[in-house]
Amino acid sequence: MSESIHVDVAVLGGGPGGYTAAFRAADLGLSVCLIESSETLGGVCVNEGCIPSKTILHATSMITEAQHAQSMGVSFGKVEVDIAAMRSHKVATVEGLTSGIDKLAKARGIQRIKGTGVFKTKRSLQVTGDRGTSVVNYDHAIIATGSQPIDLPGMPKHQRIWDSTDALDLTSIPSRLLIIGGGIIGLEMAQVYASLGSNITIVESAEQLVPAADKDVIQPLQKSIKKRYDILTRTKVVDMVVEDDGVVVTMEGKKIKGNQTFDAVLVAVGRRPNTTTINLGALDISLDSNHRIPVDDTMQTSLPGIYAIGDIVEGPMLAHKATHEGKVAAEAIAGIRMSTKPTLIPSVAYTSPEIAWVGLTEKEAKEQAIEYDLGKVPWLVSGRAQSVGASNGMTKALFDKKTGVLLGASICGENAGELIHEAVIAMTLGSRAKDIAHTVHAHPTLSETFAFAAELVEGSMTDMLPPRKR
Ligand code: NAD
Question: How far apart are the first and last CA of the chain?
């Protein structure tokens, strides 16, 4: 079948960025076509990323919680794990969400085309799918093609060598699992497989895990995992050979002695944008040195009417960044001026404890010679943290030295991924330390630690001695 249609907006890619952009454009009264090659909408996030990983992380965190509960006087006996049931629960969760997204797309009257889209001219896309080729003519296009895992050079293709999608399939629980990359995916998957009984080795080329975060912020996590995992920082994998009894890995680093054999290897060294197979040449759009599409603050590319969002443009590869950018692009097309503010995008590692940060980290402030006041609160001073066994956490907030305005915050501890939004809102509103310190926080809560950080900067916090003036 071959058909040709015309729409106000063509969206290429049905991940969180793409479907959000399509939905917003439709809600603003525009005719929309959403092109996606997979059977389901939702992209990596819903189908094989954020949602399945959070489902499995939650399930496996109950194993560790049940073990820790003993110290609080609660015993469950031996915890039994049914991997097949865990996998089914994950699949059902994903299916529930994708079918919901599908229904919302239909209800909004969005034309959905299943197939692979490639730009044909500046105002048309050719889509090839199971049902033949279609041409989508548009006035505006939003490119939202996402990213894919980076492979290591010379890495063999084998069922023992996984990317994050393979790891989330839960097909086997390797006794010895090597994770290459101590970033967010590496640490989240380490937690899943350690809870299921794997011995974990993490190899990280940088000098610390989660290199984007401040070193002191990750300490609560580092302390909690260093006895459970073998962590090799400033180390690189230089060779992997698959043999009958496992993958023989050669590494280079300070603590390395000889080769080591693992039952499986997860490669989690970052992702690369999907920008090279959509014929951007037809649009005369050039990529930057990281293969990303340059855009302005309304997400418009160098070609008027063409927008790009999500993992294919500058910034962290995060679903919530993509969804925000999708709304900005759709609104710009509808004539509503909204712009992106990259400093206001929070990052969260859903580890135990969680790590979350927004805005400037302390190391960035130092690199950029920005003068700041620091409020750093160990959760030992929090009554709530003590009661729930979370006193290893920490909250840290940076304020502009002259104006007192919040520049950034980092939290490591239970629920850090939820708590960070207090800082995100405060930053969005341009709050100062005194505004936050004077905001009444319920007691006992972990949120109080953010107000404590502001109080410290203001000079007096009840449960800690005043800091020495810097
Ligand atoms: P990442 O950038 O978070 O971490 C990759 C890590 O691998 C880095 O620490 C890097 O220093 C290290 N590394 C790179 N090359 C290496 C090598 N050859 N040997 C050893 N270490 C090496 O990337 P990721 O964990 O793969 O995640 C990919 C993207 O997906 C990231 O942008 C991440 O933010 C996003 N993501 C987010 C979430 C979340 O929001 N919770 C979850 C999963 C993934």
Answer: 71
Both tokens assigned to 9: 């907006």
Compute, in angstroms, the gap from residue 269 CA to the centroid of ligand 1: 5
The pLDDT, as a whole number, for residue 466 is: 73
Quote the pLDDT of residue 468.
64
Q: Cα Rg for the chain, rounded, in angstroms?
A: 24
Length of the chain: 470
The reply to whether ligand 1 has any atom less than 6 angstroms from the CB of 268 is yes
CA 159 to ligand 1 centroid distance, Å: 21
Distances (CA, A) of 291 to 113, 141, 413: 26, 19, 35
Calculate how far, in angstroms, residue 198's C-alpha sits from the geometric centre of ligand 1: 21
Sheet of strand 260-262: strand arrangement: 236-243, 246-252, 260-262
For residue 316, which atom of ligand 1 is closest to its CA? 32
CA-311 nearest atom, ligand 1: 32
Q: What's the pLDDT score for residue 134? A: 96
Whether the Cβ atoms of residue 397 and residue 406 lie closer than 8 Å to each other: yes
* Ligand 1 centroid from CA 334, angstroms: 35
- Does 6 participate in catalysis according to the annotation? no
pLDDT of residue 68: 85
User: Which residues fall within 8 angstroms of residue 58, CB to CB, at 6 or more apart?
Assistant: none
Alpha carbon separation from 295 to 8, 246, 270, 396 (Å, rounded): 20, 45, 22, 32
Cα–Cα nearest to 108, from 27, 39, 21, 30: 27
Which residue of 51, 184, 202 sits with most ligand 1 atoms within 8 Å of its CB, as the best mutation to test the pocket? 184
With a 6 Å cutoff on the Cβ, whether 211 touches ligand 1 is yes
In the prediction, which pLDDT does 465 show? 86
User: What was the pLDDT predicted at 450?
Assistant: 98
- Tokens for 16? 């969180």
- Stretches in the chain below the pLDDT threshold 50: none
What are the counts of helices (DSSP H) followed by strands (DSSP E) for the chain?
A: 13, 22
C-alpha to C-alpha distance for 436 and 405, rounded to whole angstroms: 10
